[in-house]
Fold these 4 entries.
Entry 1:
Amino acid sequence: MTKLVEGSQAQPATPSEAEWRKDSEEELGATEEDFKPLAREEADKLRRVTPVLSLWRVVLAQLLVGCAVAAVAWMLTGRLAVVWSAGYGALAVVLPAAIFARGLSRQQSRLQGSAALAGFVMWEMVKVALTVAMLLLAPRLIVDLSWLALVAGFVVTMKVYWAAMWFSRMPKSTVNNF
């Protein structure tokens, strides 16, 4: 949409909110009259079929995967330094994730709206800072550090987030069959 003013070049006109809403509704093919709130039964059914992803389950899964990576490192190399390196890489994911989950679960019932978002961002920053600090401290804490094992433990444990998202999108009947 352009508006021409005499003696000037074409400048874009700012659409009013009503024009923007009308354009948006036309693009989506819906209007406010098309919106129908869910009945209580429909909302309950939607809650039952939509799985809730527990942060603590994700942390537990990360812990188990981290232990598995350390065990695989032991089976492949037989070197204790490689096992500690892989385990520390996994711990650099699990420990910050547990602190993040604890922080979010403590504030969950108290906060609403933008305060919840601010809390989420703050705990995410704490998680990232702790992860970076643990990775920076790794050469001082692990004797004969194997960076390959540390990164492998870190990456494989971090991928649990993706697996958790994938499993959370599956219908409950499919997940329960595993």
Note: Confidence is low (pLDDT under 50) at residues 174-178.
Entry 2:
Amino acid sequence: MKYSTKLFIMSCIPVIVFAVIALTTGFIQFRDSLYDEKQRNLKSTALAALALYSGHGYGDYGRKPDGDVWRGMNFNVSDETSIVDDLKKQTNVDVTFFYEDIAEMTSITNKDGVRFVQTSALETIKNHTLSNGSQLWCRRIEINGQTCQAYVIPIRRESDNAVIGALMASQSTRGFEKIIERYILTMTTTALAILGVVFLFIRWYVARFSQEFYDAANKSKHDLLTGLFNKRSFEEETKAAIANKKPDDVSVLMILDFDNFKHVNDTYGHQIGDEVLKAFGLILERAFRTDDIIGRVGGDEFMVYMPGMSAFSLKRADEISQEILRSLAVLKVGAAEHFSCSIGIATDAGNYDFKKLYLLADKALYESKKRGKACYVRFSSDENHN
């Protein structure tokens, strides 16, 4: 996986985690605030309904022999359904009056239009409101097979304050759930849009940072004048190539030392000298293969390692050396011309490491200098060069 891809993923993960946490926290807080608001509304409706009942008469509730529930002065609670209907029109909330645990009056109807209440919370109402006189908030209950929310308050007898029934304000969760669904859809869409913009920015920033990183890394590995590997990078690349060579491969290391380069600087100036070195670097890049490792390891000293060579292709090193010498001989930079270099070549079909190979190439280079420069000498590790 590329460095830029890893950096992009690592940068996106905290953003995604933060977005998920923020969305989850926001959803929970929004949902809880909706529940709190719904609880307050249903409680207010239940208390208003109880106050409305209390204003229609006085005295205690009781059941007559005919089964109807009465309150004081001939007030028949069982027949007074207009109260709950009026409340439903005003608040869109259903109200149910329980005398003991029987729904005596309600605005709720079944699918046939008959007033009817069957709720999964009846046992809970018995245990909490009817038995203990405590108010009850139901986030999700079933009423006639429909999911609802409800708030239940106790109804007390005036004479001794005993709980004789309950009043339930309820409402379907359909509208409530639609509000949550719209919120989730809106927030998710908004978050995805924001994340898309953020990811585009991160991608742009990572690409820019990665390019700067690659440029800096590339500059640290290459010689600024010629663009070839510098000494440290050349040694690292060559050591890695030697370590990974196949058993039948022959290591070929060449040291190329520019002849009389001080004379070029002294005669034509350092600017021309730099241009000559750059031209020499270009000659080397054209002469060698793309997978050959080329480096400038000193002021006017260059090295080349040729991986994947065989015993049958060693003469290619000689041919390249001749080609380089010919190219230098005809090179002209400004008024400077007639250049040459000395080349030492080391070959090893065994297990020479970089240090041994370098020492062998250096001996070959010294020999080429002794022979008058402008030539190449090749030494093999299986020969005696003492």
Note: Residues 17 and 324 are 59 Å apart (CA to CA).
Entry 3:
Amino acid sequence: MNMLMFGLGWGEIVLIIAVLLLFFGAKKLPELAKGLGQGIKEFKKASTDMQQEFQRSVEDTHTHQVQQVAPTPAPAAAAEQSKSGAGSQSDAKSA
């Protein structure tokens, strides 16, 4: 259980924190951490939005392909519809 993150032990982590404190000071370090946290939050949000947009695009493409493959009405049914439509139009003209 000697390794924590990225293969670093407690000694390395303490050394990194000490160096950061020396470079930036105790007052600046919380501001840096806050900025880093906001950057990570924005990155995750953008990543999630991108994944959702990709999924929506895939679903739209799939729906579009299914609509193109949908069966067309039989020729006899289409002929009956056109005859009934023509008859109702001629009835409307004679009235």
Note: The mean pLDDT is 76.
Entry 4:
Amino acid sequence: MNKFFLPFLMGLLLSGYSQAQQVDMGPDSTFRPTLAQVDSISKTRPVVFSNKGCGRCTTAKNLLTTNQIPFVVVDLGIPENRSLMYSIAQRAAGSSLKGIHYPVVVYKTETQYGQSDLNEFLTTITKAYQTEQAEPAKKTE
């Protein structure tokens, strides 16, 4: 990936770009976020750890796109990203991690790693995101 494009893309992510969009870092990307970066980004938009060919991952991304929720995709084809995903799921599980179902989705303080229904989790974060977006509009009225 062009070394000038990545800083521009990260600038859009961190500035809270208002258009709903998926930011997909492909398998040839050098994007390898740290835990601190995931925690920072997930304060404003969901972070989706996605694996190529995963139907549940596609469903999650489609639901977020349909509801115009901007999100970041972290490609699990990169070994470092897979290790980070396991660390995040372990942190969410508390003690022992019995299993993970893709995708792992992080939004604010919530992490979906397969312990509950994916659609229910996505519906919950969709409502939370939409409520947060409506509140600034009410304050300016």
Note: The helical segments are 5-15, 35-41, 55-66, 79-93, 118-140.
